[in-house]
Amino acid sequence: MEISVRAAALRSAIEQATGEPAVAHPIDTGLRISAPVPADCGPERWADILSAVAVADRWGATGAAGLTQIWVEIQEDS
Fold it and tell me: Does residue 66 register a pLDDT over 60?
């Protein structure tokens, strides 16, 4: 899947902040990028993660079974 420069930069920033691979998925309104957050993630790494995701149009985190996943959505022009 081809993604925009903005999406590629965001995915790279998320991967660098989390230290984990990020995955991009097309959605109706654009693109969603998600990545797991390491279980041993401390305050400094969370600060890096929040800095990375803050540039997205929408972002959040989910947690289940002791695993935390962050996600961002960006609106991509067709």
Answer: yes
Q: Give pLDDT tens digits for 26-39.
A: 999 899 999 999 98
**Surface-to-core class of residue 52, CB atoms within 10 Å of its CB (0-12 exposed, 13-18 middle, 19+ buried):** buried
**Could you give the strand order of the β-sheet that contains 67-75, starting from the edge strand earlier in sequence?**
23-27, 30-37, 67-75, 58-64
Other Cβ atoms within 10 Å of 49 Cβ, number:
23
pTM greater than the 0.85 cutoff: yes
CA angle 25, 42, 54 (to 5 degrees): 45
Return the axis-axis angle of helices 43-53 and 5-18, rounded to nearest 10°. 170
| CB neighbour list of residue 25: distance below 8 Å, 6 or more residues apart | 31, 32, 33, 34
